[in-house]
């Protein structure tokens, strides 16, 4: 049986159904710490959804800090062989709505987790814009800052029936006719001191499918002006690693894309895995 863990009243922000929000400032901290157990559950920390013809203007959401942000620490995480529990940290979705001057700053941390077993989907700092009802979903003047870390954690999906675990760090999806202008991304995604088996890892992926994107800036001003994708001191068995992938498909329109990235795999052993760095696919 799936369970939903609600960490606090402000962990998830939902705007649905022709709502208008102006000049909103939200600060939130979400933590699941030692002694807890997440068993076949859905966990949302810092999840923001703008849905159903809503209009959002000048909204600031902050989930950040050295001891704050979205944190899962010293916690058992157990999935199953066929089900797909989800962990969202700093996750933003805009569907069939308009968002202008949206600023989201998140620190997303999973650390000192003994083993994440079974089939799971883990997303840190992801951003999705879609237009499910074909009514001009729009995001303009959006700034997303994300610091994503998985540290000292074992991920074992070897017992999964079909596919395995998905790990997504700063993955951007635009699809179904979404229109995005002046999008700024600053992020650092790291996995270190960890062991991973039969898992797909995505760090810094941009997927534009049947949508429009203009004036995109990707960087991390704290690290030589480059967005960072780093896997360090880890063991990877099976699965695949994708660092800085750009996918443009189905008559998508993309213009003025400036991406400054650094992809690093250091002191890491990879066995029977596929590794892709700075891959661009247009079809």
Low-confidence stretches: 1-12
Count of spatially separate domains = 1
Query: What is the structural class?
Result: mainly beta
The radius of gyration over CA amounts to 18 Å
Separation of the first and last Cα atoms: 40 Å
Strand segment count: 32
Strand content: over 45%
Mean pLDDT: 80
The general outline is: globular
Task: Please summarize the sheet with the most strands.
Answer: 14 strands, parallel
Helix percentage = under 10%
Number of helices: 0
Task: Describe this structure as you would to a colleague.
The protein has 283 residues and is mainly β. It has one domain (3-182, 201-221, 242-264, 272-282). 0% of the residues lie in helices and 65% in strands. The chain has no helices and 32 strands. It has strands at residues 3-5, 12-16, 20-27, 30-32, 37-39, 41-45, 47-51, 55-63, 70-73, 76-78, 86-89, 92-95, 98-111, 115-117, 121-124, 127-130, 138-151, 154-156, 165-169, 172-175, 179-192, 195-197, 199-203, 206-209, 212-219, 227-232, 235-237, 240-249, 253-259, 261-266, 269-271, 274-282. The strands form three sheets. Strands 1, 2, 6, 7, 11, 12, 15, 16, 19, 20, 23, 24, 28 and 32 form a 14-stranded parallel sheet that branches. Strands 3, 4, 8, 9, 13, 17, 21, 25, 26, 29 and 30 form an eleven-stranded parallel sheet that branches. The model is unreliable at 1-12 (pLDDT under 50).
Topology of this protein?
Blueprint: E1 3-5, E2 12-16, E3 20-27, E4 30-32, E5 37-39, E6 41-45, E7 47-51, E8 55-63, E9 70-73, E10 76-78, E11 86-89, E12 92-95, E13 98-111, E14 115-117, E15 121-124, E16 127-130, E17 138-151, E18 154-156, E19 165-169, E20 172-175, E21 179-192, E22 195-197, E23 199-203, E24 206-209, E25 212-219, E26 227-232, E27 235-237, E28 240-249, E29 253-259, E30 261-266, E31 269-271, E32 274-282
Parallel strand pairs: 1-6, 2-7, 3-8, 4-9, 5-10, 6-11, 7-12, 8-13, 9-13, 10-14, 11-15, 12-16, 13-17, 14-18, 15-19, 16-20, 17-21, 18-22, 19-23, 20-24, 21-25, 21-26, 22-27, 23-28, 24-28, 25-29, 26-30, 27-31, 28-32
Protein name: Autotransporter adhesin
Organism: uncultured Sulfurovum sp
């Amino acid at each position: 049986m799936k369970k939903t863990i609600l960490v606090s009243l402000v962990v998830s922000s939902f705007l649905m159904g022709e709502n208008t929000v102006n000049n909103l400032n939200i600060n939130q901290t979400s933590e699941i710490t030692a002694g807890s157990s997440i068993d076949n559950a859905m966990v949302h920390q810092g999840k923001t959804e703008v849905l159903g013809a809503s209009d959002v203007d000048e909204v600031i959401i902050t989930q950040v800090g050295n001891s704050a942000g979205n944190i899962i620490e010293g916690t058992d995480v157990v999935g199953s062989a066929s089900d797909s529990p989800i962990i969202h940290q700093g996750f933003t979705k805009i569907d069939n709505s308009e968002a202008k001057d949206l600023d989201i700053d998140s620190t997303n941390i999973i650390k000192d987790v003994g083993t994440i077993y079974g089939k799971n989907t883990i997303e840190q700092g992801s951003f999705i814009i879609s237009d499910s009802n074909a009514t001009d979903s729009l995001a303009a003047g959006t700034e997303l800052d994300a610091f994503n870390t998985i540290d000292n954690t074992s991920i074992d999906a070897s017992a999964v029936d079909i596919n395995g675990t998905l790990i997504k760090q700063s993955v951007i999806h635009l699809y179904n006719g979404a229109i995005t202008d002046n999008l700024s991304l600053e992020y650092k995604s790291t996995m270190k001191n960890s062991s991973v088996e039969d898992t797909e890892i995505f760090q810094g992926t941009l997927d534009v499918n049947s949508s429009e994107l203009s004036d995109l800036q990707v960087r991390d001003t704290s690290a030589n002006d480059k967005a960072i994708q780093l896997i360090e001191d880890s063991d990877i068995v099976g699965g695949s690693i994708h660092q800085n992938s750009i996918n443009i498909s189905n008559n998508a329109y993309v213009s003025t894309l400036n991406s400054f990235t650094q992809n690093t795999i250091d002191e890491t052993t990879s066995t029977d895995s596929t590794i892709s760095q700075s891959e661009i696919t247009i079809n």
